[in-house]
Structure formats: structure tokens, C-alpha cells
Write a structure and sequence with these properties.
alpha+beta
Length: 118
């Protein structure tokens, strides 16, 4: 493969840029389970996280975050919205009709003192 040859030719640069101890080439059928992955120009780059992250502790932290988000959603969903407030009016309460805009006629002109119609 030309991509793998290119990477092998420039492995030192890749290793320095990634600040990695080593670069390992794996079978294309490899399925990363506990790796962070990224696809760059049709190349799947995998960063093993096995020794860097405690997966059990991270799962607990994420579980707490999910429960916190569910509680927040339930709190917000339980608050009455604008339409719900309108539905909670006391029985017999009717909404006032909107007043028509006032027409202004015969206003005095500030300069002449005469009345004018707009």
C-alpha cells in the first residue's frame, strides 16, 4: 500500500508530531475497542487509551452526568410554558379584546399654531 509506505518513510516525523514512543501498524480489519480514533485522508489513526484512562471510573462519572441531565430536563419540562400559563386562568376569566389604535386628528402644528389634519 502506498499510504503505508509513505507513513513508514515519514514515521519519525509522525512520531515526533504525535509525541508518541512508537508507531504501530495493525491489520486493516482491526476493530479498536478502547482506543480514541480519527480518520485522516482515509487513514484511521488509533490512540490506545488503556493505561491512560480508568474506564470504570469514567463510566461512573458519565452515568452521574446522565442522571444530572435527566433531572434537569425533568425540572425544566415540568415548568409551565407560556401556553400552559394561559390555560391556567381562573374559570370565567375572559381575555380583553385589543383596543383599536387611536386616530390623531386636528393636531396643532408647532410652528404655525394652526390645526392640521394628518
Amino acid at each position: 500500500m502506498e499510504v503505508q509506505k509513505f507513513l513508514r518513510d515519514h514515521e519519525e516525523i509522525v512520531r515526533r508530531l504525535a509525541r508518541a514512543d512508537r508507531v504501530t501498524y495493525v491489520d486493516p480489519d482491526y476493530i479498536p475497542v478502547k482506543d480514541a480514533t480519527a480518520v485522516v485522508n482515509d487513514i484511521e489513526v488509533c490512540l490506545p487509551l488503556e493505561g491512560l484512562i480508568d474506564f470504570g471510573q469514567e463510566a461512573k462519572r458519565l452515568g452521574k452526568e446522565v442522571e444530572k441531565t435527566k433531572a434537569e430536563y425533568a425540572r425544566v419540562a415540568g415548568q409551565p410554558g407560556e401556553r400552559a400559563v394561559h390555560r391556567q386562568r381562573p374559570p370565567g376569566h375572559r381575555r380583553r379584546p385589543a383596543r383599536p389604535a387611536k386616530k390623531r386628528w386636528n393636531r396643532r402644528s408647532p410652528s404655525s399654531g394652526r390645526t392640521s389634519s394628518w
